[in-house]
């Protein structure tokens, strides 16, 4: 994968990098979609409202997925970072 070769490091597993980039790229540009719907005068219509609701749900799910992929990486590879679970451990 060209992105991993250019931006990845040995400290980040290839699979985690690929999952994070793929998830981040799947997120729609919600403000751009809203502007397109407004310019086409589809706001307030069933198709326009449906598109916005679906995009909002998709964005929320994608960012939760991106966080779940990136979260363990931050905990494991960031120097000096301690998660709540690490602090709670004896």
Estimated structural class: mainly alpha
Main β-sheet description = none
Helix content: over 70%
Q: Using only CA atoms, what is the Rg?
A: 18 Å
* Number of separate strands: 0
By DSSP (H or I, 4+ residues per run), the number of helices equals: 5
Average pLDDT rating: 78
Cα-to-Cα separation, first versus last residue: 40 Å
Low-confidence stretches: none
What pattern of helices and strands is seen along the backbone? Answer: HHHHH
Q: What does this molecule look like?
A:
Helices cover 73% and strands 0% of the residues. With 90 residues, it is mainly alpha-helical. It is elongated, with a radius of gyration of 18 Å. α2 (14-26) packs antiparallel against α4 (46-77) and α3 packs antiparallel against α4 (46-77). The relative contact order is 0.12. The protein has a domain at 27-72. The model has no long low-confidence stretch (mean pLDDT 78). The chain starts with a helix and ends with a helix.
